[in-house]
Amino acid sequence: MIGQGTWNIEKTSAPEAVKTLRRGIHLGMTHIDTAEMYGSGEAEGIVGEALRGLRERVFLVSKVLPGNATETGTIAACEKSLARLGTDRLDCYLLHWRGRHPLEGTVRAFEKLQAEGKILSWGVSNFDVEDLEELNRLAPRGRVVCNQVLYHLEERAIEHAVIPWCETHDVAVVAYSPFGSGSFPKPESKCGRVLRQLAEAHGANPRQIALSFLTRRPAVFAIPKAAQAGHAAENASAGDLKLTPEEISSIEAAFPLGRRPRSLPMI
Length: 267
Known about the structure:
Blueprint: H1 14-26, E1 31-33, H2 42-50, E2 59-64, H3 71-85, E3 92-95, H4 103-115, E4 122-125, H5 129-138, E5 144-150, H6 162-168, E6 172-176, H7 190-202, H8 206-214, E7 220-222, H9 229-237, H10 245-254
Parallel strand pairs: 1-2, 2-3, 3-4, 4-5, 5-6, 6-7
Helix pairs in contact: 1-2, 1-9, 3-4, 7-8, 7-10
């Protein structure tokens, strides 16, 4: 339910980043997400180092950039990611966001890579319902396994249509930047006080409360990034935290859903 993201992980010293990822794996956060875009491949190299001797325990995900997502470009990008990661396959490979290249070519590449065993499944990231509908018409039944999207307490837009669509079509929702990418509610704010009160009741911290709330629906997973091993341990503990319906309602009231935006939010 709680995995590990790696966006900007290259800004942490490599030894500390490796230590943090390994701590998370040992604590059960075995879903690790990365991308060729992150640090121009540097993040994949760090992940590869962290996975030495641990590859069989991990569900490894990477992403192809839209600019590379032609049929031949996707295959080439995947092979470069595999080399940086030091592995012979990805458990899942995603199109990072919708670009100018037709989806048909990307789907053909994904299918070829899966047939060759270089990826075991595939999905997308930053796809709104209209894009998902188009993709669903192109892909063989059941092939689209996940949609990775922006989701945090102050950005709940995917609850309007994306999550319901994914639930209906048996597509997992993977929440990236679940802490708001640097904009987590401050403790002294009204919303921050709500989180703090709930955290005190559970012997937890506000970020653990946020992760529990975001993953309250069975279809939703979260991939927070941790910069230190201690933070990874805190994230892992959130997987055991269960909020009551009343507590969920109090968070929903503190962080209103708002209207459905015209386009899907992303960063």
